[in-house]
Specification:
The structure holds 2 protein chains of 2 kinds. Chain A is 33% helix and 20% strand. Chain A is of the alpha/beta class. Chain A has one domain: TIM Barrel. Chain A has an 8-stranded parallel barrel, surrounded by 4 helices. By secondary structure, chain B is of the alpha/beta class. Chain B has 2 domains: 239 residues, TIM Barrel, CATH 3.20.20; 50 residues, no CATH class. Chain B is built from 10 helices and 15 strands. In chain B, strand 9 and strand 10 form a beta hairpin. Classes of the chains: A alpha/beta, B alpha/beta. Strand 8 of chain A pairs antiparallel with strand 11 of chain B, so a sheet runs across the interface.
Chain lengths: 315, 331
């Protein structure tokens, strides 16, 4: 579509940036390092978010690899952002937030604590800070937010309203398991009869999260440590053109234990109008091993719903 | 600020419950308008503007206070009802508004600078930095702390910030960080954050199936009960699920928070106010809980440890009690 080519003649690719959100799962450090190396070398992302969002107990595992991973991503021309914890409670977590803020790089704030530590330095508002309306957006922009990643629950109409003002970049998650709740308690540990303090890092046993079924066998949720996620992957492929029309600048894929290089290729192709969403959907299905797709929140429905073709739905 | 007096803040889901709570010894009641601007937007509850003004008058005549909860998050393009609610609370003479959304906080700060602002638990401010942020930007005077902190966490937060805090003492235990839980909307499509109703009754069904009862929210079974078991209300975080091949209350048992036995510790931590949850509960419930806490607090003020016979147990959720996150090991 012509209206996605910006005036200075730059390509559509630059208008619609593809981002890799922070890894929510607790993968072994080497697996995580190699994953990012491959992302740096092969994947079509413009921006990669690193950093631990779910549990501060996991932070030390990947620390030694962070600099080398960040360097490799930057060398590949990707913007690197450090994402921070979604729920900050302890003194140690607070110090970690302050040291991220002091480091001077661009960071994604996922708890309001981070905004206090940043003292108005430019930053990105992550999806765990509630921005559901223009009042919250305007306040945060005045507080020097450069980009806002909208909460996963935000429906299309609200996305349109919030993205209307062009003084801030807006990012929407378009692939992966949507985080539904943050807690202090570790449900992964609890499912294993342990507590957060004695967790034995059982969350590392499930590279794509621990599946949760209802008593009558409906697969419904995914547990990832203190985080509760949807079972299905959100897939907003049919909706990408609509989001581009709303001037969404950044499109987030959340890392799952699948071929994310392949997933990035599919989304990039649709953003660039090189393939149609129907074709992309078939390609994505072969990459995602039978995990169902959801898109209900976008369509103002229950989040677990799948709305087949949004072009039949009034926008 | 460390206070020698623990203020008792009680729920008023209706004008009648407001009078009941005050007559039973509440220092302060909190309530909301009858719309999506408050987090207990259930049928038959809440106040219109006249009722709010009457409620404030009833409280003020007796030297008590009224807080108005406007603690949901406005929908984009539809902020008016929330702004109107803040204006209405100011006009009704409320002693403070309890807010969560950054935009609504910003509005109230600019339009009603002299109207006292409290930070709702829905804002999920669980650390000193967050508390300071809300204080610095919106001159928030009191923070309602999320139910995720231990007594030690509460004490150090108060010490560091010097802020007035209000903590939950009785009622539901929400295991998730408040204001950021999308489980109910994931299942029903209705958002607790912007519509104010978690697990709305309109989406609840109890289905009899082969001798058992399934309690369902939307199209999702959240629990199953035998013939003689009472079927619990299907709230997503209190449901029974299958994980690792066994069924369990994965998030939290159907259990109620009761901190009556740790009031001295909360007082020593420097807490300003104790909050009783339950605007959706009956007047009888309100009367019973408020009276018990009044008695315990009056005893505490005289230096007597709370010895209230724990007859609150029978009205706690599921007939079971917990100290929740206040006690280490809960998490």
């Amino acid at each position: 579509m012509k209206n996605n080519i910006v005036k200075d003649g730059s390509t559509k690719k630059r208008a619609s940036r593809l981002t890799l959100g922070p890894l929510f799962f607790h993968w072994p450090a080497e697996k995580r390092r190699d994953f990012y190396f491959r992302i740096a070398d092969e994947a079509a992302f413009d921006c990669v978010y690193l950093g631990e969002v779910v549990c501060s107990k996991r932070e030390s595992f990947f620390e030694e690899f962070l600099p080398v991973v960040a360097d490799r991503l930057r060398a590949a021309g990707k913007e690197v952002i450090v994402s921070t914890l979604a729920l900050v409670t302890s003194e140690r977590e607070r110090r970690a937030i302050e040291s991220h803020a002091a480091a001077g790089g661009l960071i994604e704030a996922n708890d309001v604590a981070c905004l206090q530590a940043l003292q108005k330095s430019a930053h990105i508002i992550g999806p765990f800070i509630n921005v559901f309306n223009e009042g919250a957006r305007d306040f945060l922009v005045r507080n020097n937010a450069a980009r806002i990643v909208l909460p996963v629950e935000t429906p299309a109409h609200s996305i349109g309203v919030i993205a209307k003002k062009k003084n801030v970049e807006i990012e929407v998650m378009v692939f992966g398991r949507q985080p539904l709740a943050v807690a202090m308690r570790c449900y992964h540990a609890r499912a294993h009869g342990l507590t957060k303090d004695s967790c034995q890092f059982v969350c590392s046993l499930n590279a794509d999260g621990l599946p949760v079924d209802t008593l009558d066998g409906q697969r419904i949720l995914t547990i990832n440590g203190t985080q509760t996620m949807a079972h299905g992957y959100v897939v907003l492929l049919n909706e990408l053109a609509q989001l581009q029309k709303m001037s969404i600048s950044h499109f987030r894929l959340s890392p799952q234990n699948v071929d994310m290089v392949g997933v990035a290729r599919v989304y990039r192709s649709v953003l660039d109008k090189n393939i149609v969403p129907e074709e992309a959907m078939l390609q994505l299905k072969t990459l995602t091993r039978g995990v169902p797709f959801v898109n209900g929140f976008f369509h103002a429905r229950e989040g677990l719903a799948w709305v087949e073709d949004n072009r039949k739905v009034a926008s | 600020m460390t206070s020698s007096y623990l203020e008792l803040v009680c729920p008023a889901g209706t004008p009648a419950a407001l009078r009941t709570a005050i007559d039973a010894g509440a220092d302060t009641v909190y309530c909301g308008f009858r719309d999506c601007t408050n987090a207990r937007n259930y049928p038959g509850l809440n106040f219109d503007q006249d009722e709010m003004a009457e409620g404030v008058a009833y409280a003020h005549e007796r030297g008590r206070k009224v807080l108005v909860a406007i603690n949901t998050f406005p929908r984009a393009g539809d902020e008016k009802p929330w702004h109107q609610a803040v204006d209405n609370a100011a006009n009704a003479g409320a002693d403070a508004v309890i807010l969560a959304d950054l935009g609504v906080l910003d509005y109230a700060t600019r339009r009603h600078p002299s109207l006292r602002r409290h930070l709702s638990v829905q804002a999920s401010a669980a650390n000193a930095l967050s508390v300071q942020f809300y204080r610095d930007h919106f001159d928030v005077k009191r923070v309602v702390l999320p139910r995720v902190l231990s007594v030690e966490d509460v004490a150090s937060l108060i010490q560091e910030t010097g802020m007035e805090t209000e903590v939950f003492a009785f009622g539901s235990v929400g295991p998730m960080s408040e204001g950021r839980c999308f489980l109910s909307s994931y299942i029903t499509g209705l958002s607790p954050t912007s519509e104010g109703a978690c697990a709305p009754a309109s989406h609840v069904a109890y289905k009899k199936e082969g001798g058992c009862t399934k309690s369902c929210l939307g199209n999702v079974t959240l629990n199953q009960f035998g013939k003689d078991e009472p079927a619990a209300y299907p709230t997503p975080c209190k449901g029974r699920y299958m994980a690792l091949d066994h069924s369990s209350y994965l998030f939290e048992e159907p259990i109620g928070l009761n901190a009556i036995d740790i009031l001295p510790q909360l007082k020593a931590a420097g807490v300003t106010a104790l909050k009783i949850e339950g605007r959706q509960r009956s007047r009888a419930y309100v009367a019973q809980v408020v009276s018990a806490f009044r008695k315990a607090l009056d005893g505490l003020a005289l230096g007597i440890a709370p010895t209230v016979a724990n007859d609150l147990k029978q009205i706690a959720e599921g007939g079971q009690e917990t100290f929740g996150a206040y006690k280490k090991g809960w998490r």
